[in-house]
Amino acid sequence: MQNYFRMKFFYHLGRYVLLMKKAIGRPDGKKMFLRNIGKEIVAVGYESVGIVALISFFMGGVMAMQFAINMENPILPQYLVGLGTRDVVILEFSSLVIALILAGKVGSNIASEIGTMRITQQIDALDIMGVNSANYLILPKVLAGAVCFPVLCCLSIITGIAGGWIIGDVTGLVPSGQFVLGLTFLFQPFYVVFTNIKMFLFGILITSISSYYGYYVKGGSLQVGHASTTAVVVSSVVVLLFDLVLTTIL
Amino acid sequence: MIEVQNVSKSFNGTQILKNVSTVFEEGKVNCIIGRSGSGKTVLMKSIVGLHEVDEGKILFHGRNYTDMKDKQRKEIRKEIGMVFQSGALFDSETLEDNVMFPLRMFSDMSEEECRERANFCLKRVEVINKNKLFPAEISGGMQKRVAIARAIALKPKYLLCDEPNSGLDPITSIVIDELLHGIVKEYNITAIVNTHDMNSVMEIADKIIFIYQGQKWWEGSKEEIWSTDNKELNDLIFASPLTKKIKQYI
Ligand SMILES: Nc1ncnc2c1ncn2[C@@H]1O[C@H](COP(=O)(O)OP(=O)(O)OP(=O)(O)O)[C@@H](O)[C@H]1O
Ligand SMILES: [Mg+2]
Q1: Are strands B207-212 and B215-220 parallel, antiparallel or unpaired?
Q2: Based on the number of CB atoms within 10 Å of its own CB, is A206 exposed (0-12), middle (13-18) or buried (19 or more)?
Q3: Ligand 1 atom nearest residue B43's Cα
Q4: Looking at this predicted complex, what is its ipTM?
Q5: From A37, B113, B151, B244, which residue has the greatest number of CB atoms within 10 Å?
Q6: Any CB–CB contact under 8 A between B108 and chain A?
């Protein structure tokens, strides 16, 4: 049993690495490539702006409220709420949680798009024309992921902190001045760099893993659905693992 | 000229193609006929390399395609136009963009010239004023015709069509036949057409290859086909009451 899983793991890893090797390379048709990158930036980045901003704003707000309510000890200064919200939003929320949400949204989208192209022989058609289908389909998505995820991360930091600030102020739990004091207190700019590095990696991982599951779909629309679920699950698990590893080493 | 030498192909232990050898000549329409499931599509996909053959060789004008690396194959693939049984148009692109696709990828034509060529090809297959529609918005027969337009856009040396007129009415079917015949003669293309439509075989075939249970059972010209005493071939061509009647007069 254990052996079986180990074999399966190495089978997928090997095939994934080979596919990525095929996907990286100079694309045919510069114009088409640029057009595709534009398209993917819209699909991966622009279309995720709404959900990222919405979730970040409310999570930031809820976080600030929880901090404020649970810090009943009067010795603790109120600005700690600002500090806590800031650090949690920057370090884990804007990267890990947002990446998990995007794995669901972007990942399933990519896997089902490429999977449908596979089962309707559109990928065969590309191959027959002499187009490197992996390069044509996957590279623009991965590049768009690498560019858009850090941008979405910054957006999440800004809206998350704004959420904490505004909701803390409106509910009267944390005075605005105290919150801002907390924001600037012992601020480590490296945290922002670190979280962006993570998001950059997550962007590459999620888009490439989902592309992998879509690219190798066999069968019909049922299998496309299955591939898209697997893509989301696997990319989420991989993101969690990488988060753990990166947090340990950096 | 495409030569197929002793090609065999199995899937999961079931042998589908058994030692098939034949020559598809230049400037001629070579029809592959056979019953459903006899292996026509598998043969065609083996020729272009979508299936790797287990044994045997494929030569394109003497160039050994079977033993080539991906890079060398790519050069030959640019000379191949293929029409899939399902059409395999790119659903996310308009009809015009579908036909322009190979031009944008591989020609150094300007955007305007590409569009002009695409329009010419679409006119050629009698799809007019539908440039901005998407594949899902046109009928199945029209999709086939657009697929042909896409396949001929780059003026291929080799044209492979998998059942170009299945699912078409008799009139449109004749239009497609004439179109295929016309372009093959005009550009001296090596054409391979899979079909089980005997009308179309009689219309356009310069050479007929009959596949029976994965073997090449018979080959010859359309004049010879009437007088053959090959039982399985006779069963196929004289299957319908109409052809049975015709037989009485020849
Ligand atoms: N990828 C595959 N894996 C396993 N078996 C396959 C595969 N492709 C085709 N086959 C089998 O090969 C046989 C021949 O199929 P093929 O598609 O070549 O038939 P065909 O002659 O094109 O029929 P039709 O006229 O209906 O298109 C079928 O029995 C099919 O089950
Ligand atoms: Mg077929």
Answers
A1: antiparallel
A2: buried
A3: 18
A4: 0.89
A5: B151
A6: no
How many angstroms separate the CA atoms of B178 and B197, rounded? 14
DSSP A91-140: IIIIIIIHHHHHIIIIIHHHHHHHHHHHHTTHHHHHHHHT--HHHHHHHH
The pLDDT of residue A72 is above 80 = no
Question: Looking at ligand 1, which atom is closest to the CA of residue B12?
Answer: 4
CA pair distance B140, B166, nearest whole angstrom: 10
Interchain CB distance below 8 Å, A125 and B82: yes
Q: Report how far residue B26's alpha carbon sits from residue B2's, in angstroms, rounded to the nearest whole number.
A: 8
Ligand 1 atom closest to B14 (CA): 5
Average pLDDT of the segment spanning B225-242: 85
The dihedral of CA A94, A95, A99, A102: what is its sign?
positive
- Closest residue by Cα to residue B52 from B73, B21, B32: B73
Amino acid at A19: L
Cα-to-chain-centroid distance, residue A218: 27
**How far off is chain B from A145, nearest CA to CA, in Å?**
20
DSSP string, A43-61: IIIGGGHHHHHHHHHHHHH
Sequence-ordered list of residues with C-beta below 8 angstroms from that of B58, at least 6 positions apart, any chain? B2, B3, B4, B5, B7, B46, B47, B49, B64, B65, B66
CA distance readout (Å), B38 to A100, A133, A137, B212, B226: 48, 29, 33, 6, 21
B39 and B211 in contact (C-beta within 8 Å)? yes
Report the C-alpha gap between A165 and A65 in whole angstroms.
10
What pLDDT does A131 receive?
A: 92
Q: With a cut of 90, say whether residue B175 has pLDDT above it.
A: no
C-alpha dihedral sign at A172, A174, A180, A183: negative
Give the three-class secondary structure for B90. coil
Look up the pTM and report it.
0.90
B82 to A28: CB separation less than 8 angstroms, yes or no: no
Q: Choose from B100, B105, B112 for mutation: most chain A CBs within 10 A.
A: B105
The rounded distance, in Å, linking the Cα atoms of B243 and B33 is 16
Q: Determine which residue's CA is closest to atom 29 belonging to ligand 1.
A: B37
Measured between beta carbons, which residues in chain B are less than 8 angstroms from residue A121? 84, 86, 88
A18 band by pLDDT with thresholds 50, 70 and 90: very high
